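Researcher: Re-running this chain for the archive, since the previous output was lost when a drive failed. Same request as before.
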Amino acid sequence: MDMGTPNFQKIIDGMSIDQKIGQMYMGGIAGGETLDFARRNYEKYHLGALQFSGVFERFIRGGDYLPCGVCRNAPLDEVAEFLFRVKQIGREITGLPVIMAGDQEGSINNSIFRRRNVSLMPSQMGLGACGEPKNTYQAARITAREVKTIGLDMLYGPCLDVLTQEIPKLARGRLAETLKWLRFLASR
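Model: Regenerated structure tokens:
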């Protein structure tokens, strides 16, 4: 269904205050939830964004992992199709594009797509410890490209992870010796 470019101002002008407020909120969705679940949430809450997470059920709702695309190691094309359809439903209901976010820092511990055919990058702390901003940039660029192809529009993962004091158990982290070094890394 080609929805073209909507007249955003006309759509916004026609929204109730509840719909406008809903557009400022982000809900959560895991891959094991149904498209009907997404539809009900868009209709009820008018969400403008969703966070996709394989651990949403466990940590937010206190339940167990859902048999979702992430947790059951579904092929990435299946995960991408699910995300596309969820975003499509949101646009059909609200008339506006939906932002799909995810927490994808990279590394084996922080990847919502581990055990799949994606590039595993060093952790943020590992990248900071190597002290090479160009490596950090390349890792972020690769990660961004890969998650965009499956339908994520925004990542929470990119961060500057630099130690401010020496911690023996985290010896792999780089101590931020000076504000100048920290500013340099952050500007990259």
